[in-house]
Amino acid sequence: MLILWVPLSFLLGFIISHSVQSSWENWRNGGGEFDKQPHVVFILVDDQGFRDVGYHGSEIKTPTLDRLAAQGVKLENYYVQPLCSPSRSQLMTGRYQIHTGLQHSIIRATQPNCLPLENVTLPLKLKQAGYATHMVGKWHLGFYKRGCLPTQRGFDTFFGSLLGSGDHYSHYKCEAPGMCGYDLYEGEEAAWEQDRGLYSTVMFTQKAISILAKHDPHRKPLFLYLAYQAVHSPLQVPSRYLERYKGISNVHRRKYAAMVSCLDEAIRNLTLALKRYGYYDNTVLVYSSDNGGQPLLGGSNWPLRGSKASYWEGGIRAVGFVHSPLLRNKGTKCRSLIHITDWFPTLVSLGEGTLEEHLNLDGYDVWEAISEGRPSPRHDILHNIDPIYIKAKNGSWKAGYGIWNTAIQAALRVGHWKLLTGIPGYSDWVPPQTFSNQQMGSRWHNEHIRFDRGKSLWLFNITADPYERVDLSQRYPQIVKKMLIRLAQYNKTAVPVRYPAKDLRSNPQYNGGVWGPWYKDEKEEQEEEDRYNNLFSIHLGKRQWKKKSKMRKMKRKAKD
């Protein structure tokens, strides 16, 4: 009998390697367990101001957010877009607005417009990597035809609203007089039966927890995109949360603060569910606001300048953090430059998906910068170029050194420097004491800046002057010129703006009282017309056959 001697280390290595390979193949084939790809929970909140979290010095109580951020990594140089649709489009595609045609404003409910269908989305890439993909909450990326809906863009399931805002209880939204409709969806149909009149923050959290409860965290990785409607107007909240803020005299601020507290409690419940159902130890949780706060509706971006819808820091610098047991350096602050487009490549890479060159991403994989404190691969951010918004009366090619027309609204960050042209938007600093007044009027404590100074170009060193108080454009003209050249180079890569006119067929009264897909192209309309004609022909044929049959019976009776 021949006995072969095999080194023990070689044998163990073979067994372990074979075991890992078998487990991986078994999981890929839909059986067994997996422990490799992390679950991803992305929480996007609506209109939360930079100051409106406890760890940024707010009077609003956010114990859950404070704890999660303190135990994770706080993103203190993190940027989004100044409005809803732009931020969401860049999260979903990893691409700047100029590369998707969504450079101007937001996607309106009445427009035949949506996130262009040729763009590959984050959920689709994660789905290809083996993830179950679920969305709960606000979409706001268009719905004029079925191909635009979340379940057509990579999500296995969707429960939430399609529009940018609406009543937090009734889920109705009026875009104009006579243009009102219901906006709560389950998949691709109105969710009448699931609607129990719950406050949206509570309802969305319950839905997210039910998804966690039904999914097996050990068999398949999960991507949950939870896009809260809060704290966007209308300012509505269950009364029990208002009790905590009786000391805030400004009504808007009081309601807004209560909405943030309700949101904080919802995220506490979600976090407890992650632990209860076995996800937590292998989960990456990302928290982000979609844009800055709106001071006239209770939000605060102090000490940053500007507000939502502006390209000042208060409109685009966001509250954000990552919480996960998988982080290397927990309890730290990441001051590396990070933009919302970076989540696409970062999360796809974490999920072991593929990033093909044809995706033409503007985002970077920043996981090592967040988790390990390494330098960020990102050195610049194109905040936007909006060729339609050219309202700066004093803007000109001359003011832009013949390189750029400064009438165009644009913003660019390169290293420490930030350049703005055109009209960047509401430009005040709104200090906290403003909210002590019942009526928010013109008392800005000498912080009000008017645009009658003839300016259409600004340069700031954001590292040294994060509050944008000292314009350096006259002192450093060479830096201005270099950044204008960079802006012009970006503009050469821009695609045409997609901002169609209102389509009256979008009116919910033509769709059973529901906001939903209404648009059909020529091919679809022809197919629908053919179906109608076929049905009509069949129906007409049946009637004629019945008429002839009746005549035959009458003739037989006459013969008898």
UniProtKB/TrEMBL annotation:
Signal peptide: 1-22
UniProt cross-references to InterPro entries, sorted A to Z: Alkaline_phosphatase_core_sf (IPR017850), ARSB (IPR047115), Sulfatase_CS (IPR024607), Sulfatase_N (IPR000917)
Any one Pfam family match given in the protein's UniProt record, by short name: Sulfatase
Keyword Calcium set for record: yes
Any one GO molecular-function label of the UniProt entry: metal ion binding
Cofactor: Ca(2+)
Keywords: Calcium, Glycoprotein, Hydrolase, Metal-binding, Signal
Domain Sulfatase N-terminal: 38-350
Family per similarity comment: Belongs to the sulfatase family.
Protein name as catalogued: Sulfatase N-terminal domain-containing protein
